[in-house]
Amino acid sequence: MNMALTKKQNQVYLYIKEYFDKEGYAPTQKEIKEHFGLKSFGSVNKYMHYLQEAGKIEIDWNARRGIKLLEEITAPPAMVTTHQAQFSEVPLLGDVAAGNPIEAIENPSEHTMVPNHMVAKPGRYFALNVQGDSMINDGIFEGDILVCRAQENANQGQTVIAVVDNEATVKNFYKKKNSIELHPANDRLSPFIITGQNDFRIAGIVVGLLRSYE
Asked: Where is the active site (predicted)?
């Protein structure tokens, strides 16, 4: 797909190209974020989405330096194939604690790009930045971005975004006879026990995760 780039999008592309020409490999998302003074990895993801849509780059989202310049491909033209990026924009609402609950922050003016397969089911989706280490046994680390589907209920053992006394946390959900338990995925931590004394609700369930490796 041939799409025109804005001035800022072209600056990001030129930075990636110049970095590749100098180092022999692409910059990380963290390096792009810091070079342009971007506020979040969500902003970096948005630029990566635009550049991929424009046919300038391809991205392996699971690799630390997964950006590939399409112009660097040396195979004959008949052998080169490009794939249109399939991403959706969802609100990046702020921070969620993988540890002790922290105040829920909403900033619907900020968004991030997520693969369409993560948001394929009908519903309202949002993303949250992870703080803390209580879910490390489930592969959720500080600095990750969680992709969530908004809903008010969950199955046993499902990873949820819970709001407890107006503070948000990510935990595994278990409903007991007389209480609700929010279990961390960290052997050194104990579950949160939710009783009738707490203001509790489920804000959504975790359906995907985005990660930068630096």
From this structure: 134 (for autocatalytic cleavage activity), 171 (for autocatalytic cleavage activity)
pLDDT of the residue at 77 = 36
Q: What is the pLDDT of residues 56-66, one digit of tens each?
A: 888 876 667 77
Helix H segments across the chain?
7-23, 29-36, 41-53
What is the C-alpha separation between 185 and 153, in angstroms, rounded?
A: 20
pLDDT on residue 63 = 67
Contacts of 47 (CB under 8 A, 6+ apart): 8, 9, 12, 32
Catalytic residue among 171, 177, 190, 212: 171
Tokens of 171: 């935990």
Of the candidates 179, 132, 182, 178, the residue with the CA atom closest to the CA atom of residue 159: 182
In residues, how long is the chain? 214
Q: Which of 46, 56, 134, 212 is catalytic?
A: 134
The domain 7-79 having CATH identifier 1.10.10.10: the answer here is yes
Beta bridge partners of 182: 173, 192
Q: Is 171 a catalytic residue?
A: yes
129 Cβ contact partners less than 8 Å away, ≥ 6 residues apart: 40, 92, 94, 95, 96, 143, 144, 145
The domains of the chain are located at: 7-79, 87-210
Region 64-86: mean pLDDT is 53
Q: Quick one: fold of 87-210?
A: Umud Fragment, subunit A (2.10.109)
